[in-house]
Design a protein that fits this description.
The protein is mostly helical and 71 residues long. The chain is built from two helices and no strands. Helix 1 crosses helix 2. The chain is flat and about 70 Å long.
């Protein structure tokens, strides 16, 4: 039986290399301009989601300042 645990570091490194190779093939097949355009659109959408979440969040009440006298 194989005693290596699932998710070991060599396995993860191999899948990361496969992912990088897939991205390189995708860029070669579709063109660099297309990939840059898709990444720009994804960045704008992610920014819109962040802005929408922060605008809908209720603002906390400002902290009250308590002045204390020294003894």
């Amino acid at each position: 039986m194989n005693s290596r645990r699932y998710g070991s570091k060599p396995t993860l490194a191999l899948w990361m290399l496969v992912t990088v190779a897939d991205v390189a093939l995708l860029i070669a097949a579709t063109g660099l301009l297309t990939v840059v355009l898709v990444l720009a659109v994804l960045a704008v959408v992610a920014g819109g989601v962040v802005v929408a979440r922060t605008w809908n969040r209720p603002q906390p009440e400002p902290a009250k300042v308590v002045a204390r006298r020294r003894a």
